[in-house]
Amino acid sequence: MANATLPARITMPPGARRGEIIEIRVLARHPMERAIDAPGLRPVPRKIIHTLRVTQEGTEIFRIDLSTGIAANPYVAFTTRVIETGELVFQWIEDGGAIYERRQVLTVT
Questions:
Q1: Residue 22 Cα distances to 29, 55, 74, 83, 100, angstroms
Q2: pLDDT range class, residue 102, cuts 50, 70, 90
Q3: 14, 47, 74, 84: most buried, per Cβ within 10 A?
């Protein structure tokens, strides 16, 4: 399935010094539909984000596999050591194959 955007808040410094460890915080706005419906209603497809993957210039710098117990609007925080200037690509992968993507540039001095 084609990449789509996901309303998400990504908090990270716009720049850092080479070798510095920075914290990146990510809050995705996603309903996390569990396919549970009221009696007598038609079931809805399950839509749960199961993976968050972050890459920089094609190299994976962070990955987390989420379980069905994750809350709607999942929040994740992680640290990484800054090595070079580049674009960070945040990908949320949902059941059913949808991939949501956001990009943010990190400048290294």
A1: 23, 15, 20, 11, 24
A2: very high
A3: 74
Report how far residue 30's alpha carbon sits from residue 49's, in angstroms, rounded to the nearest whole number.
8
From first CA to last CA, the distance across the chain in angstroms is 37
- Report the relative pairing of strands 59-65 and 49-56 from DSSP bridges: antiparallel
The alpha helices in 1-109, defined as continuous H runs, are: none
Other Cβ atoms within 10 Å of 28 Cβ, number? 21
The two tokens of residue 72 are: 């709607």
Q: Which of 14, 8, 49 is nearest to 29 (CA)?
A: 8
Q: What is the pLDDT of residue 74?
A: 84
DSSP 7: -
Classify 78 as helix, strand or coil. strand
Q: Is the pLDDT of residue 33 over 70?
A: no
Locate 31 and state its tokens: 């309903």
Task: Please tell me the distance from the alpha carbon of residue 86 to that of residue 73, in angstroms, as a whole number.
Answer: 27
